[in-house]
Amino acid sequence: MPDAASFSVELRPQGWRFEAPPDQTLLLAALDMGLRLPHSCRNGTCRACIAKLAAGTIDYRIEWPGLSREEKAEGWILPCVACARSDLVLEAPAAINLFDLPPPPAPPVIVAPRPPGST
Ligand code: FES
């Protein structure tokens, strides 16, 4: 159940939505709802999670997220260290909905050979 103070985040182009509490990073809020954004370090240095903010306002948990001034001006953000401060629209084409994945294949069935002469 989303917190009453949470913000709504829409992922584009998929149209998936999740709720982001103001004290939780966008990456963790998405993961809690089964939406996997690309990520690695989770501390704002590797840039694996980089996504473009199409609408809304965020705030960072760290002072110097690994983005240049130009990237920030263009709307690029790092969801692993960013928290919502309003409803958001985030362009994240590589996001995966973990609930939509097909089930893993069944393990192979191994049948032991019958000894000669048995039925
Ligand atoms: S996961 Fe490394 S910068 Fe976001």
From TrEMBL:
Alphabetical UniProt keywords: 2Fe-2S, Electron transport, Iron, Iron-sulfur, Metal-binding, Transport
Superkingdom per UniProt: Bacteria
InterPro entries membership: 2Fe-2S_ferredoxin-like_sf, 2Fe-2S_ferredoxin-type, Beta-grasp_dom_sf
Known cofactor(s): [2Fe-2S] cluster
CDD domains: fer2
Chain segments annotated as transmembrane: none
Domain 2Fe-2S ferredoxin-type: residue ranges: 7-96
Family, as annotated: Belongs to the 2Fe2S plant-type ferredoxin family.
PANTHER family listed in its UniProt record: FERREDOXIN, FERREDOXIN-2, CHLOROPLASTIC
Protein name in UniProt: 2Fe-2S iron-sulfur cluster-binding protein
Record organism: Roseateles amylovorans
High-level lineage: Bacteria, Pseudomonadati, Pseudomonadota, Betaproteobacteria, Burkholderiales
